[in-house]
Each structure stands twice: as C-alpha cells, then as structure tokens.
Amino acid sequence: MMNLKHILFSAAVAAMLMNVAGVCQAEFGQVEQGRTVAFDKDKKEVTLIHDSSGDQTKPVYDKLPPSVFKLPDDPKETGQEPKAGQRMKLDTDKKIIVIYDNTTKKLETLPINIVDLQQPIEKDHPLVFDKEENKAKKMPVIDKEKKTITIYSGRQKMLCTFSVPENYFGYPASTWDAGDEVRIYYKVAGQSLRFMNISKTDIFKK
C-alpha cells in the first residue's frame, strides 16, 4: 500500500512540475534568433530562417521551413525594420555560397569562382565605406559585363568578388546579400512581442 501511495504521490508531483513548467513557458515566452529572408513593410511581417546552432555568437541559419512573424503592436518594442537578403553563408575555403532560393523555398549550395578576395577589411575601410557620405557603400555590386558579384561580410571582415553558375547570375541582387539578423521575443508563434534588429544594434556583423 505504501508503495502504491508513493507511486501516486510521485506521479502527482511530476504532473504538477510539468504544469508549472508549461505555465512558466507561457508566462515568460521564448526568444529566437534568425536571419531575415523577406520583409513585408505593409503587412509588417518578417520571414526568417532560424539559427540551429544554439550559439548566438556562431549562428547557423539553416532551420527550415522559414518562420513568419508579425512585428509587435507596440512601436516601442520594435527595433529598426529589417533588410531582407538570401545569402546564408559564404565559404571561400570550400568555394561555395549557400542561398535561400525564394522560388524553390529551399537552401541551395552553389559553387563559386573567386576572382578577388581581400581580408581583413574593417567596416570603415575606404573600399567599403564612403567617408564623405559617412555611410557604407552599397553592396552587393553586380557587374553584368564581367558577370561577377562583389559582397562585403562584416562578420568575416571580407571583401570578395566571385562568379556563380550562369543560370543563377540573373537572380535578384538580394540573393547575394545577407539579410539582417534579428531576435524575437514571443509567447504565441507568429506574433512577436519584442523585436530587435541585432545587425543594427548588436556586436554581430553580417
């Protein structure tokens, strides 16, 4: 009888703890980080690919399918509007670029031919920053004549010019750009309560 009582008591305690955990999660919400691949300014909706690494200092944006979140109703909880881009990764050692293809809704790994590579290039370097205008130069640069693409990665401190397979060269310029990294606090999936554009406010760089 004592064993039965002990089992029933343990089960009741476990159920109570699970219920408390569920209440706490619902009460305190969740925080997720992702890279913006689309932004609808009119609908105030951001589409992002989540980080699967769990390490916010070394994110790996490859968690599909993408998630769609509404920006907070409260403007005070909304950071700068995000810039969308489909470049997820550029690996000059492996000579590949990983993009999110808006048509197939999949991640595509493309081979690249590196034409020029310069490192380290800080964000205020004359090659990427216009001191007279006091702003970063527009990237990526698409050279239709030479059929090359030049991008700057602040995270990698790298200015790289490369070519891609012919059938991809006509893709929109945003394909080769890195979308802003954002953090979202929410309780209900799809509706953010707090939105932070960490590419604009944090130490992390694209």
What does this structure look like?
The protein is an alpha+beta fold and 206 residues long. It folds into 2 domains: 27-83 and 179-201, Copper binding periplasmic protein CusF (OB fold (Dihydrolipoamide Acetyltransferase, E2P), Beta Barrel), CATH 2.40.50; 87-176, no CATH class. 17% of the residues lie in helices and 41% in strands. The strands form 4 sheets. Strands 3-2-1-13-14 form a 5-stranded antiparallel β-sheet. Strands 7-12-11-10 form a 4-stranded antiparallel β-sheet, with no helix packed on it. A hairpin with a 4-residue loop joins strand 4 (87-91) and strand 5 (96-101).
How many strands, which pairing sense, and closed or not: the largest β-sheet?
5 strands, antiparallel
**Helix amount:** 10-25%
> Uncertain spans, ≥5 residues at pLDDT below 50?
7-18, 20-26
Instruction: Return the domain count.
Output: 2
Beta content comes to 35-45%
Termini distance?
A: 64 Å
Series of secondary-structure elements, N-terminal to C-terminal? HEEEEEEEEEEEEHEEH
**Main sheet strand line-up:** 3-2-1-13-14
Task: Calculate the mean pLDDT score and round it.
Answer: 87
